[in-house]
Specification:
Strand order of the largest sheet: 7-6-5-4-3-2-1-8
Strand content: 15-25%
Largest sheet: 8 strands, parallel
Shape: globular
Bound molecules: pyridoxal-5'-phosphate
Number of helices: 9
Order of helices and strands: HEHEHEHEHEHEHEHEH
Helix content: 40-55%
Distance between the termini: 20 Å
């Protein structure tokens, strides 16, 4: 499915997405305010983030530290609003230190070596404070794709909880493009249930992007990561 931008101005696109989220939530008996829209601003300049702050957005997602670190600094110097940066992309261990400077949550904790790197950095902080995090699931048959196999989720979650470096919010997933997204949202929802049996606080689900966020909502998604439907096509 090609990613295509909604027409209209930024304000119209942002408000249209919020309306769609509210309607989809109400249609399945959920409270709209139990769902957070994270605007994925990757490949767009800091000015777009500032414009969205003016429209009321407070949660932004980025997938590359090289781009996100300077953007977060630029936004912080231009706006006094307190906003949250969510790191949603594959994260190299040597970028963890930088990401911890601006991100309030990491959605892509996907392997033991990354977990160790996070724990090591946090332990070195003057006042160690756990970072909010999601465990990313690999929903494909390709072991080279990022993410923990659903069958290994509990073992990895136990390891994560042991470190005390991450405040585990829940599971994250990216639906495969080659099948109905509901198939993967169902897998994520089941994984979430098994995780909550281990850690009742880890009840959140980061799932749903521009093409499938409406479908993710009945499956319990609480953190939608939405880029192009709001921002328009990526500029670079
Ligand atoms: C880019 C990205 C998104 C947003 O994608 P859109 O299709 O533009 O909504 C969400 N999640 C992750 C992990 C991404 O890299």
């Amino acid at each position: 499915m090609p990613t295509s931008a909604n027409p209209g101005s930024l304000k119209e696109r942002y408000e249209a997405v919020l309306d769609q989220v509210s309607s989809a939530a109400l249609a399945c008996g959920r409270q709209p305010d139990s769902i957070q829209v994270i605007v994925v601003s990757k490949n767009h300049p800091a000015q777009l983030v500032l414009d969205l702050i003016d429209l009321g957005a407070r949660n932004f997602g980025e997938n590359r530290d090289q781009e996100a670190a300077p953007k977060a600094a630029e936004v912080a110097s231009a706006s006094s609003e307190s906003i949250n940066w969510h790191f949603v992309g594959q994260l190299q261990s040597n970028k963890v230190k930088s990401v911890l400077h601006y991100a309030s949550a990491i959605h892509s904790i996907d392997r033991p070596s990354l977990l160790s790197a996070i724990a090591k950095e946090i332990a070195q902080q003057e006042a160690p404070r756990p970072i909010d995090g999601f465990i990313q699931l690999n929903l494909t048959d390709d072991p080279n794709r990022g993410g923990i196999e659903p069958k290994n989720l509990i073992e990895f979650a136990e390891q994560l909880l042991e470190t005390k470096a991450v405040n585990l919010l829940g599971v994250m997933g990216v639906a495969a493009l080659d099948r109905a997204p509901e198939v993967d949202f169902e897998t994520i929802a089941r994984a979430s249930e098994s995780l909550q049996a281990l850690d009742p606080a880890a009840k959140f689900i980061s799932a749903g992007m521009s093409q499938d966020f409406v479908q993710a909502i009945p499956f319990g998604a609480t953190h939608l990561r939405i880029g192009t439907a709001i921002t328009g096509n990526r500029a670079y």
